[in-house]
Amino acid sequence: MPEIKVTPLGAGQDVGRSCILVSIGGKNIMLDCGMHMGYNDDRRFPDFSYITQNGRLTEFLDCVIISHFHLDHCGALPYMSEMIGFDGPIYMTHPTKAICPILLEDFRKITVDKKGETNFFTSQMIKDCMKKVIPLNLHQTVQVDDELEIKAYYAGHVLGAAMFQIKVGSESVVYTGDYNMTPDRHLGAAWIDKCRPDILISESTYATTIRDSKRCRERDFLKKVHETVERGGKVLIPVFALGRAQELCILLETFWERMNLKAPIYFSTGLTEKANHYYKLFITWTNQKIRKTFVQRNMFEFKHIKAFDRSYADNPGPMVVFATPGMLHAGQSLQIFKKWAGNDKNMVIMPGYCVQGTVGHKILNGQKKLEMEGRATLEVKLQVEYMSFSAHADAKGIMQLIRMAEPRNMLLVHGEAKKMEFLKDKIEQEFSISCFMPANGETTTVTTNPSVPVDISLNLLKREMALGGPLPDLKKPRTMHGTLIIKDNSLRLVSPEQALKELGLTEHQLRFTCRVQLQEPHSDQDTLNRIYTHLKSVLKGYTIQHLPDGAVMVESIVIKVTSSAEEPNLKVILLSWSYQDEELGSFLSTLLKKGLPSGL
Amino acid sequence: MKLYCLSGHPTLPCNVLKFKSTTIMLDCGLDTTSALHFLPLPLVHSPRLSKLPGWVSKDGTLNLEKELKECAGRVFVDSQPEFCLPERELLDLSTIDVILISNYHCMMALPYITEHTGFTGTVYATEPTFQIGRLLMEELVTFMERVPKAQSATCWKNKEIQRMLPGPLKDALDVWTWKRCYSTQEVNSALSKVQLVGYSQKVELFGAVQVTPLSSGYSLGSSNWIIQSHYEKVSYVSGSSLLTTHPQPMDQSSLKNSDVLILTGLTQIPTANPDGMLGEFCSNLAMTIRAGGNVLVPCYSSGVIYDLLECLYQFMDSANLGTTPFYFISPVANSSLEFSQIFAEWLCQNKQSKVYLPEPPFPHAELIQTNKLKHYPSIHGDFSSEFRQPCVVFTGHPSLRFGDVVHFMELWGKSSLNTIIFTEPDFSYLDALAPYQPLAMKSVYCPIDTRLNFHQVAKLLKEVQPLHVVCPEQYTQPPPAQSHRSDLMLELQPPPMPYRRCSVLGLPFRRRYERIQLLPELAKSLVPAEIKPGISVATVSAVLQSKDNKHILQPVPKPAPVPPSKKRKRVMEEPPELLSPKPLLSGAVPLEPFLATLHKVGDFLLLPSLSPSLSFILPQHGITEVKVEETPEGHILHLQTEDTLIQLEEDGTHIVCGNNEPLRTTLRDLVLRFLQKL
Q: For residues A443 and B486, what is the distance between their CA atoms, to the nearest angstrom?
């Protein structure tokens, strides 16, 4: 029985270091190769030794697919390809290929230059790794080899995020990466066709959340920012340079414009300008509205949002600052946070999910005292607000995607075990399909039942379709007969006659002639007539005819009557039929043996 | 499988392919060369044009001075220019299921096909083709609508009258079918039927056919198409280029193994080398500017203009002409320049890697930023106050019959300092200039056509090896003006099948197979038997299910168990189902082994598990009394006790017996043991 195996090396009942292995039709594929934000040790990267204990991965993996540029999906890529060793193809979309190396370099700098870690991938390794990347377009069917094909679908979430269909023969798996089922201010909604995969591997970050309408959340966000600024406070919004940041910038930009506000909005890090450039050049990946109007007004050219300088943090008066990274675990956002945390007029708005172990995660859990490096404690007095702007599908969205794709099985990753459990029950109830949620290193096996593709001769098919009529009788389906010729891996279904001809065989005629003796006080001709009448009444829907040579023919069965001069009343009925009419011939001989009814 | 040819223009094709159960239109190009018969549409009143004399036949019997004007010995129609549409009578356009567009130049007739014809299908195009195609259509509509003509000339189209007109008007074909330009509303409605596709995307049509666009290397988003089923493959090649310009390179390998390759859109100027032309373009431009003249470049708003700007970007500084302003004037100039920068996925590698930096892929962004290139929607407004001379103006339409270019012709035509440089190959430059004669301005013809030439196409066809090639008849003979150049035609073995406008070709295809799926339960139940080394056969009895052109074979459902009731006896007597044939038999029954089995059979039949009723029919110790008689064809076995004959021959077996059904079936099964079933 063919099987598909799925093993998460990361993101199994967890968020972070997404890395899922799929074995399908003899092919092995790695989906995402991410890092974990919550760890600084070995656990930061997926455990590749699961694949092989010694050495390179090239011969074990047919390809690697990266769903989008977030580090928890691509952060371990140079480590995997250059330090462990993988020379096969790595697939990602164009925007991901453009942005991914920048974030990797950023990550490397923070880790090596600031934290002084060694044994980490180098800038050159990032470059070498990116050379192995083959960019692809949405909906393009990429033939990895003769059997394995992949296809990308729009996923929303961030610029260039994609879901991937992986297909071998008639078996297929869809991996969603991170996705968003509702369009936002800069990206569209995820979409997939009814591709009926054997397994749909879906993220489940917001497995239990049904988020209220986007408009309400936006109004809430603007209200909070506005109130804080009005009372002279400072607002810190920790974000990742690309993605949510642009959406919130568009939101604040239009609000500032409408309300004619004067308080400055800053965007930290040199990435900003660059980031906005990417959005401009990859505008076909944004939502319909932005794409339609970009010639007249490019939404990514901001008037009110200026570049941030470190010294501005100490300026008096209100301001709004977007700073990276988004989970307050390092860098500029953490520095500003330390400066502003003591003042209760200020506010920090966390617009996305925070991984366990980060400062973001701690303050969201209401921690008021933070232990910092060097035993110092930081008192958190500023207001902490959480607004889910991360573009993940919520429970409703996940169900919606299942309805779109109609998978045969469901597999959840990228979420917390407890929440997954809840969603799993819901999915199994609503769709009556199995739902799996393997932990890291745990393998889920799904047996598939693929049908066998065969070449049928057009003559045979057309004949059958014509005989079946335009509306075949469902209760009494027609049985079709054919001969399957199996030769050199090809399977061809032809009519038996054609098979004989093709294989150079001659037909062997098997015929039967059966004598039935009856006492009939009639002439031979009358007896034949009586047989004719009798059969007419018994066999409805059969062709029965008199032949010129004095025989009766039922379909292709010939019936003759003879008698001898000695015993004129003992009739010998001869039935002759070929093997193809075996059932009818056998039936008739048995029938006639019983004699003819007297009422004829 | 048939091909209906609705256009005779080799670079503006419109063909309809009937393939399996689908009707697929391949491109719908609009032949705008018909506009050359019309007077230019000036943007501002032109005293010269309005003073042209009306045309009266020499003997004075025919007076069409309201409709026809004479200029420098040629006659032009004074009316809104009209276009020559694809043939609309050859087949019912409402039966078209899909239209595949290969590039933005080949979709300009779309509204004529999809609107007011009952068309209900889908149009497939790539995103750049769709977006730029929209711009070109909108531009065309604006050109026409901003200078409305009150009257439209129709008298001259009368067959009797047209016959008496001077050439080339006399020889214009199908003038009655010529149509005015469509409206914005029709453009929008037509474009709303477009569905976007990406390169190498497999699009299923009704489950019967799969179509796939491939990069053709000619323009942004330009594609060739593969139309295939599991067994047949048609390649449609239209407007392809092997030169390294801005678009993604042509995908050649996917065209391999085609049964039929439809070849259109080769270069229109097979004798001109695009690189050489580009050099000539630059040197003529520099020469004119240095002498203080202006350069007019009539061009389309997208396509080669991107390459021209890039070339000039490098050239102008090196030629010390860095301060000369470039103007690009078109209602869609801004959009065209902006759109060109956002299609990274569709560009050549070189440009793609710029986007990764991130930098705009085309250097015209920098030309705009540094104010070297300015673009305006028309000559009205800002342009008139801002423009400086000498300058270079890029503007449309290349036919010189409408658009802002008409104004520059009137403005600059009188001075020999100025130069007009033709780069678009679609129009004869002499015909284009005819209504402006006499002209002092210099004219230079540097047609840049990057599409495949005959040499390249011969190489390509050798590489991809299609079984048959279909092409416009023009490609099967040398161009009329160069009849000795046998290198400017396609020479193939077998010779290509030529088509012309209104041809209907039967394509040489014999479809023999179709894909069918055996459900796993059915596949498992099959028992293959090897009948020759390496060849096995299995008989298949199954129920066919066909839905949406997909075929499935499923196991024959087991008959529902008959409920035990009084009717049971009658059921037993039901005649067998009709139409359940037995497999065909093959092979021969060998005498000795058959006899041996016959002897054994009696013992078998004595086993208690077998039907006890048989024991009285057969002798206790098998069938031993068999008399074998040799005949010319084989043998006759006489089972004397049973009064039964078995005729064994090479290709047949005949069992003649009394009414002993159990014996007959036993013998039958014995014979079957030796035969192959198909």
A: 67
Sign of CA dihedral B366, B367, B372, B378: negative
Pair of tokens at residue A69: 């540029």
Query: CATH classification of B2-267+451-506, choosing from 3.90.980.10, 3.60.15.10, 3.40.50.1820, 3.40.50.300?
Result: 3.60.15.10
**Longest CA–CA separation in chain A, Å:** 136
Amino acid A464: pLDDT: 85
pTM of the prediction? 0.88
Q: What strand order describes the sheet that includes A19-24?
A: A133-136, A90-93, A63-65, A27-31, A19-24, A3-10, A444-447
Q: Are B658 and A456 a contacting pair at CB < 8 A?
A: no
Closest CA–CA distance from residue A489 to any residue of chain B (Å): 10
Per-residue pLDDT tens over the stretch A117-140: 778 999 999 999 999 999 999 999
> Min CA distance, B268 vs chain A (Å)?
32
- Chain B residue with minimal CA distance to A284? B342
Between the CA of residue B1 and those of A185, B18, B460, what are the distances in Å?
49, 5, 25
Cis preceding-peptide flag for B466 (omega within 30 of 0): no
Most A CBs within 10 A among B195, B513, B580, B650, hence the mutation to make, goes to B513
Tell whether A450 lies on the interface with B, counting CB pairs under 8 A: yes
Q: Which parts of B319-437 fold into alpha helices (H)?
A: 333-340, 349-355, 364-369, 382-386, 405-412, 429-433
Task: State the distance between the two ends of chain B, measured CA to CA, in whole angstroms.
Answer: 32
CA distances from B351 to B276, B316, B461 (A): 23, 21, 29
Q: Do A512 and B552 touch (CB under 8 A)?
A: no
Segments making up each domain of chain B, as ranges:
2-267+451-506, 274-445, 586-598+623-677
A416 catalytic, yes or no?
Answer: no
Per-residue DSSP letter, B38 = B
Residue A579 to residue B582: CA distance in whole angstroms: 7
Express each pLDDT in A554-588 by its tens digit. Answer: 888 899 988 888 888 888 889 999 988 888 888 88
Tell me, yes or no, if B572 comes closer than 8 A to chain A by beta carbon. Answer: no
- In the 3-class helix/strand/coil scheme, how is B602-633 assigned residue by residue? HHHHHCCCCCHHHCCCCCCCCCCCEEEEECCC
Contact B654 A512 (CB under 8 A): yes
Domain range holding A492?
452-467+478-507
CB contact under 8 A, B523 and A461: no
Residue A488 near chain B (CB below 8 Å) = yes
As a dihedral over the C-alpha atoms of residue B574, residue B578, residue B583, residue B585, rounded to 10 degrees, the angle is 90
pLDDT attached to residue A271: 60
